Structures are given as structure tokens and as C-alpha cells.
TrEMBL record:
ATP binds at residues 5-9, 139-147. It holds the Pfam family 5-FTHF_cyc-lig. Its EC number is 6.3.3.2. It is an enzyme of class 6 (ligase). GO terms for biological process: folic acid-containing compound biosynthetic process; tetrahydrofolate interconversion. This is 5-formyltetrahydrofolate cyclo-ligase. Coiled coil: none annotated. InterPro entries: FTHF_cligase, FTHF_cligase-like_sf, NagB/RpiA_transferase-like.
Length: 198
């Protein structure tokens, strides 16, 4: 199964990287509109705690959405690799002037400030990157397992918050993914073209 997952991961990453700059710009604009529409559909008017990520490796560009969330007075958080347990993520507040550093994968994250860390159950939304997704809401990540390990305890407790939302290009959708026991399925995935709910 791991070979099949690796093959899908390589194929979709390659497809995603081949999107043109113009396609990425249009996708980022559509993502912004689709997620804001999703918030409105849930009658969300007050300020929310929303974790998101900075795009990497051809992922759907989140920069326009982050700016829009700031303008609407939502509080934005980014994942940082746990400084003591390097297999899990913490979510730290992200503002325009937040000091940043590159993590071991070369991805920018806020410099650790324990007073700015948000506990998972306080987050209203957790917007997650993914490499591929299928028609059942299963998610295939980059293979590091960071999100699955971070969410494992919540997954066992039938939690209400945060709402997990995957972000992806439409070209990342596949018919069916080979699933492992630790995979955390998603109830919502937003692409530039559509919002999928299960």
C-alpha cells in the first residue's frame, strides 16, 4: 500500500507543480472567495480563530486568503513543528509583523513564542494542506504524518472543534485513495472550483 501511496503522491505533486503562474493566481482568488462564502454559509459573523498554512511545493496559494481573514478581524495561526516533540505541530498566532524562521523543511513558520500558541480545541477552523483527496473525503499528505499525529487524540474523542478543512486544486482529486488506520478523514475540502462536504 505504501508504494501505491508514494506513486499517487509523486504523480499529483508533479501535476500540481506544472500549474502555470496564471492558474495559481486565479486559484488563489477563487479559494479566498470560496472559503469566505463557506464562513458566511455557517452564519459566522464574529471573529474566529483560524489555523492555515503558508503554501509550498505548488500548493494552493493561501496568501490572499490570509490577508482577507486579517481584514475581517479573524485571528490567524500557522503550524510550527513542535520544538521538543518534532513529530507534532503547534499552532501559533500569525500577524503581518510576526518574526519568521525557516523550519527543517525550508518552510517559513513563526519564531516560537509560547504566549502566542493556540490550543487545538480553541481553534474554530483548521485549514490543512494535502497532496491528494478522494470522493470519500480521505486525505493524502506529504508523508510526514504531522497533521495525523497532531489530530490523533482529537480524532478519538469525537470533537466539535476545530472544523477540519482541506485545501486543494481540483486536479488533486482522485477516485479512491489507499487508506491507513492513522489517516484522519475530512468532512470538508475546498478547491477553487467547488466545496465538497461529507
Amino acid at each position: 500500500m505504501s508504494n501505491k501511496r508514494a506513486k499517487i503522491r509523486a504523480e499529483i505533486r508533479n501535476t500540481r507543480k506544472n500549474l502555470s503562474n496564471n492558474q495559481q493566481i486565479i486559484a488563489a482568488q477563487s479559494l479566498k472567495m470560496n472559503f469566505i462564502q463557506h464562513l458566511k454559509s455557517e452564519k459566522t459573523t464574529n471573529s474566529k480563530h483560524i489555523a492555515i498554512y503558508l503554501s509550498n511545493d505548488g500548493e494552493l496559494d493561501t496568501s490572499l486568503l490570509i490577508k482577507e481573514l486579517w481584514s475581517l478581524n479573524h485571528t490567524v495561526y500557522l503550524p510550527i513543528i513542535h520544538p521538543f516533540n518534532g513529530a507534532n505541530l503547534l499552532f501559533q498566532r500569525y500577524e503581518k509583523n510576526s518574526p519568521m524562521r525557516a523550519n527543517r523543511y525550508g518552510i517559513l513558520e513563526p519564531k516560537l513564542n509560547c504566549s502566542q500558541i493556540c490550543p487545538l480545541p480553541v481553534l474554530d477552523y483548521l485549514l490543512m494542506p494535502l497532496v491528494a483527496f478522494d470522493k470519500q473525503g480521505n486525505r493524502l499528505g506529504m508523508g510526514g504524518g504531522f497533521y495525523d499525529r497532531t489530530l490523533a487524540r482529537l480524532h478519538e474523542q469525537n470533537w466539535q472543534k476545530p472544523q477540519l478543512i482541506g485545501l486543494a486544486h481540483e486536479c488533486q482529486k482522485v477516485e479512491a485513495l489507499p487508506i491507513e488506520s492513522w489517516d484522519v478523514p475530512l468532512k470538508t475540502i475546498i478547491t477553487p472550483d467547488k466545496t465538497y462536504c461529507w
